[in-house]
Amino acid sequence: MISRQLLNIVMLVEIGLLVLAVCLFFAHGLWLFFYERRLARLTEAARDSLAHLATRGTVNVEEIEALRRLPHDVQVIAFLEISRHLSGSGKERLSFVALQVGVVDRARKLCESRSWARRLRGARILSRLDVVDPLVQRLLSDPHPAVRAQAAEWAAAQPSVAVISAMLALLADPATQARFAVQNALLRMGSVVAGPLATFLERNSGRAAEAGLRVAESLAGPTFGQAGLRLSRTADIGVRIAAAKLLGAVGDAAGAERLIELLDDSDSSVRAAAAQGLGRMQHWKAASLLAHRLRDSAWRVRRAAGLALRSIGAPGVLFLRRALKEDDAFAADMAQQVLDLPAAAASV
Amino acid sequence: MSGVLQTGVSQILLKGQFVVLLYFLAVNGWYLILLLSSLLELRRHMLLIADESRHLLLSSTLSPTISILAPAYNEEATIDASLRALLALQYPNLEVIVVSDGSKDRTVQVLVERFDLVPVKTIYEQRIKTKPVRSLYRSSTYPSLVVVDKDNGGKADALNVGLSFARGELVCAMDADTLIEADGLQRMIRPFLYGTDVVATGGTIRVVNGSEVKFGRVVKTSVPTNLLAGVQVVEYLRAFLFGRLGWNRLGGNIIISGAFGLFQRDAVVNAGGYLHDTVGEDMELVLRLKRLSYERGGPGTIAFVPDPVAWTEVPESAKVLGRQRDRWHRGLADVLWRHRRMLFNPRYGVTGLFVFPYYAFVELLAPVIEAAGLIALALGLATGAVDWTFAGLFYLTAYGLGTALTAFTLILEDLSFHRYETFRDRTLLFWWALVENLGYRQMTVYWRLRGLWKFLRGKKDWGSMERKGFHPLTVS
Question: Which of A138, A198, B331, B411 is the most exposed place for a label (fewest CB within 10 A)?
């Protein structure tokens, strides 16, 4: 039989582990209780000083000294917390105080660390404080995607030519997270990105172009028209779809012509995107062609065409009503469903 | 005669003890690996999310659209509050599809009255074959709400109908009574943004019993004082934080709770959607997606997010709990049997070589081994082949190991999310961890054996789940 001695040893080890676990569990609870109380008290004090600073706009030496005396983690919590509610000159003042207190310097050191987690934390602090620093810009080419993504988030508030150009290069980033962060940041930069992005789109294709087209669609400026037209002729289906959506958002005459051509594309998703684009620009001249697409073999095209007709307004609705009497049951049913939709749902 | 019996039993126990010991060591060794893996994974996760500002995702129009598929069957009393909580989730591009699975009560009428629904022509793109759809409604006030009324066909069928209506690139499958944290979707979508190979994500589901719920949200967390609910709190924490998180790092998660999971819509549709003829449809789908990723290529990572993202009510009566566990084990047996060719098959990588054998030999057969051990022990004691002191020591060793693992899981929770903050909650949690092995565990062995027996007899019924309701009641 399994020796009792062995069982005794195992049991002793287990008892030791259990006692250790109980001690750790309750000790941690106790520590958390006191730590959080202390943290709340200190953070409250720091919050008060920073709130004064934000409202008065002046820097009080005593308050900076008081902030400096606080534990580092409390400083970071307080600065990051208040940074959410500030922008413009308020944020600038906050960054200045953070620099005086030493938060910025410590974040810079973190950005240079060999550990990705520390670099990420450093980049997060500098991003939230909108600190202009070439160190964070360098992190745009960091080996860890989370750090690159964070650097991209920082870049949204620093729309310099160099930063925009580095960000555009990242549109082809293989990591989804970094690509998403870059797209998001470019979008937040706003119209300042339009020129460089249009040039980028005129020179690129593939995944990078597709990612750029999504940003361009949301920015929807006339500068993107030419790039949209060019990319709508590429072989890549994903790019053609994104280009069709962009042309719909731009809404110029050349784009409308191209979208009409794309209604006959070999791929159903592209045809649907073209119909959606025409609906978005409320191009009533295309109503008859859209009505024809109610007979398309693909559900998504029929649906997009129906919704587009509804968004066009009176002429589109007229075509939908006519379609109710169609011989083609698919077209009639789709027309009926789109006409039944409440206004709020029809615009989705 | 009794001497012969005693010698026989003694011989069997002597020969069998090494098998039992090996099994015991292998299982607990594996648990230890999982625990270490969970610890590393949790550390990495906490580093990634420290000071993270998720509001950027919330404000981005570029975020992928998520379609929530909410099957409902006779949910007249709770559907209003549940749906309002879903519509208020913090996510920018959200669509909510409620599928009434042939409800016999006023579920659909309540929705029509309270959400300004209007009937629209019932046509849709049938991506998966399902029971007929009776009617389709859209809301005049909630543009992203779709309500489908269909013939009764079970949860799997309702989810498949939802898949046909979903516009989103990602679909979120859930139970009608799951309470999702307001920022749960933002947390769940992370793996899709972090990786290119992710086909599905699951998050930590916690027990809501004992906690305070208002407007479909958990506002105050407490450990329940009810024995069965309390023990299940500990059980859920262990299953999610130690089991699933551990497998995350080892590359082999194959379970996403049916209560709340996020999937790539096209991958699910291409795989054929949920199966109707199994009681373990959620696990079956995940394992099928995993298998197909090896066979056809394409995304295959099943990611697990340790953040507490959703809450569920667990049974407080032994009868209902027994039915649930019996069904879960039947589901597990059925799913493993359906995909048995993956077992030890190198074509399926880590899943075939490690994960599948783990679920087959540890999760599925555990009750059999445990029951055999208990029977052998009883026989040994009756015939005098095993002495009482030894039996007691062995039981205490096994009990101690289980409790130590649970205790370390509690520490993991405390170091990361520490949702149970008060001294009372901590004491209760520890108490339930100690009590779990004294009777409850043996009851689950019985229920799981019953499930296995029913599986062998080909029974596929669901049984009913009686709910006590949240505290205070959310019924409007």
Answer: A138
* Segment 236-295 of chain B within 8 Å of chain A by CB: none
Where are the alpha helices (H) located in B119-238, listed in sequence order? 155-165, 184-188, 190-194, 227-237
Find the mean pLDDT for residues B76-87.
90
Q: Is A323 part of a structural domain of the chain? A: yes
The string over A35-58, giving b where at least 16 C-beta atoms fall within 10 Å of a residue's C-beta and e elsewhere, is eeeeeeebbebbbebbeebbeeee
pLDDT at residue A216 is higher than 90: yes
On chain B, the residues whose CB falls within 8 A of the CB of A341 are: 120, 138
Q: Please determine, for the modelled complex, whether the ipTM score is greater than 0.90.
A: no
Tell me if A300 is assigned to some domain.
yes
Cβ of A10 within 8 Å of Cβ of B397? The answer is yes
| Per-residue pLDDT tens over the stretch B395-439 | 788 888 888 889 999 999 998 888 888 999 999 999 999 999 888
B21-38 mean pLDDT: 87
Length of chain B, in residues: 476
Residue A78 lies in a domain: no
- Say how many domains are in chain A: 1
Beta sheet of B170-174, edge-to-edge order: B117-120, B133-139, B145-150, B94-101, B66-72, B170-174, B260-264, B198-207, B301-312, B179-180
Size of interface A-B (CB pairs under 8 A): 142
In chain A, which residues have their Cβ closer than 8 Å to the Cβ of B56?
Answer: 153, 181, 184
- Helix H or strand E segment including B66: strand B66-72
Residue of chain A with shortest Cα separation from B19: A2
CB-CB under 8 Å, B17 with A1: yes
Task: Report pLDDT for B460.
Answer: 66
Residue A134 burial by CB count (10 A; 0-12/13-18/19+): exposed, middle or buried?
exposed
Residue A51 forms part of a structural domain: no
Q: Would you list the DSSP string of A220-270? A: --GGGHHHHHHHTTSS-HHHHHHHHHHHHHH--HHHHHHHHHHTT-SSHHH
